[in-house]
Structures are given as structure tokens and as C-alpha cells.
Amino acid sequence: MRLIDEKEAINMKEKLQALRAEALTQVEQAETLNDLQQVRVSYLGKKGPITEVLRGMGQLSAEERPVLGELANKVRGEIAEELDRKKQALETAALNEQLKTETIDVTLPGRPVQVGGSHLLSDIVTEIEDLFIGMGFEVREGPEVETDYYNFEALNLPKGHPARDMQDSFYITEDLLLRTHTSPVQARTMGEYKGNKPVKMICPGKVYRRDTDDATHSHQFTQIEGLYVDKNVRMSDLKGVLNQFAKQFFGEEREIRLRPSFFPFTEPSVEMDISCKVCQGKGCSVCKQTGWIEILGGGMVHPSVLEMAGYDPNIYSGFAFGMGPERIAMLKYGVDDIRHFYTNDIRFLQQYHQV
């Protein structure tokens, strides 16, 4: 490779100085940010003249190479610095011009801001949770995609049990399904404690059943179940807890009654009614002339359920209950269609919150 002589090296230096002066002039003349970007690309880009000069440095002598390299870096730095200064000046000028043309009329009325509120159903669940927390219950949660074992078998519903037909299910696999009730949380909690300590809990959450949606049914709804397991728990304890719930939630004047019923995981089982708020128990169209409205089911935990969870049914006993917050909200606020809770109609929501 031929080395450049001293005269050619001087020409390269002079060319760099000329490029510097030329670039600075174009920077000063640039009127827009786009013009400035064109200058940056033209002089500092990979195909620019400064880069072209630097490609010839390999032909310089060992003494000239660092001298020209230092000069090239200085020229590039000065051009880049001037480009940044000009860019800032153009941006400031553009902002000032925008501020002059875009005035704000502070006398115009402001736009109202709509503030959302919690959903009626969420408020009902929270109110019920607070009520039972006040009675010493803890709140537990569990998975919505549940195993067949916890959803059915651990609750005294073995495979092939006819009571499974009461809860037509959404199966994902042969062993996985969308839970049909929140009772699996109770089974999981008792299994976690392994029969070594009492359980006093409620478990709110979504549940799913294959049902035709209408005014009183939905394929997805909310459920809150309660469980109390300890030594010497009796049916009278269940009645006392439910009576306290009814009076605090629906009003001190409400009365309750328990009717015999059937659930596979409780024995004996009961349905609970409250006296009708509309007619005060005298009979009307709301309570179908009975004076009573059914709101939940419960009973004493079946010994088989206790045993499968690791509790000795000869030592421990317990009660369980389950309620639907949608039904309770419908009774408390006179909502006539369960679908109102899920269609998100702002007109319905505005009746309970300023949204």
C-alpha cells in the first residue's frame, strides 16, 4: 500500500477544515428541524465527506496518522455540538410559536369529570364479609378452575352420585372443571389444617354452572359459603349465626326460620327463610303469600366430609352454609333481574352510585 506524502496529508487537513466551515454555515442557515437533520446526515453520516477523508488515514505515515485523527475528531465534535445547539434553539422557537397561537380561554366552563364507584354486587360482598369478620370468621379464597376431587369427592359427592346432576358443570378435562360452588375452598382449608385446629371461615367468589340465563338464573354467579368446625359445634350455633346475619343485614325486625332440606355435604340440612320485608310476614305477591322468602341453605357438616379432611367426627363437629349475593341484593334493593348485575348498563349502576 502506497503511503501518502506530506503534501497530500496537508490537503487532507485543509479539506477537514473546509468541511467544518461549510457544515457550520449550513447549520446556521437551517430553518427547520428537518433541515438540521439533513445537515447531520450529510456531514456526520456513514457516507458523508468527513468519513470519506477518514478512510484514507490508513495511507498516512505513523507520525501523521494521530495528528489527522485528532483533527478529524475535533471537527466532528464541533459540528455535532453546533447541531445540538441549533436543535435546541429551533425547538424553543417552535414551542414559543405554539404557545402564541394556542391560547386557552380560562373563562370557559370546565368539563365535568365522572367518578366511578364500586359495583352494587361488590358492595354486597364487602358488607357480608365485614359482617362475618365481626363474628370472628376469616375470609379465604381458592381457584376457580378446580379439580373433580375438591369440587365433588371431598364433599361427599363421589363419581356417579346422582346429586351431581343438581350442579351441571363446565368440564375442561376429565378431572378439571370450573367450580360449581365455593365449597372446595372449605375442603382445601380443612385439608390444610389436617384436623389439628378449628376452622372458622367464609369463602366468597365466582362459580359456574351450565344454566340458561334468565331473570333469576345465570351461568356465572357469586357465592359466599361459611364453615365453622370445632369441638361441640351444634345446630343452635348455626341458627344463632344466621339470625345475627339476617338482623344486621336486613334489619332488626327480620325473623328467620329453618326448614328441613337436603345437601350431600351436610346432615341434617336446612333452608333458611327470612320474614318478608314488604308485608312484614303477613303475605304478599313478593313472598307468594307465605310471609317468608328463602335466602340460603346450610346444615351440619357431614361426618364423611370431616373424616376425608382429616378431622375425627367423634371429636369435631361443624356447620356450613351458602348464600348467593345476587339473590340477597335482589331482595334488599328490589332488583328484578339478575342479568342487571352483569350487563353493565350505566342506568342501572347510577341508581346505586353517582357514576
Automatic annotation (TrEMBL):
E.C. numbers: 6.1.1.20
Top-level taxon in the UniProt lineage: Bacteria
Predominant location: cytoplasm
List of residues binding Mg(2+): E267
This protein's GO CC annotations: cytoplasm
GO BP annotations, alphabetical order: phenylalanyl-tRNA aminoacylation
Gene Ontology MF terms in the entry: ATP binding; catalytic activity, acting on a protein; magnesium ion binding; phenylalanine-tRNA ligase activity; transferase activity; tRNA binding
Compartments, as annotated in UniProt: Cytoplasm
Cofactor: Mg(2+)
Similarity comment text for this entry: Belongs to the class-II aminoacyl-tRNA synthetase family. Phe-tRNA synthetase alpha subunit type 1 subfamily.
Assembly behavior: Tetramer of two alpha and two beta subunits.
Name this protein carries in UniProt: Phenylalanine--tRNA ligase alpha subunit
Organism of origin: Amphibacillus marinus
Gene giving rise to this polypeptide: pheS
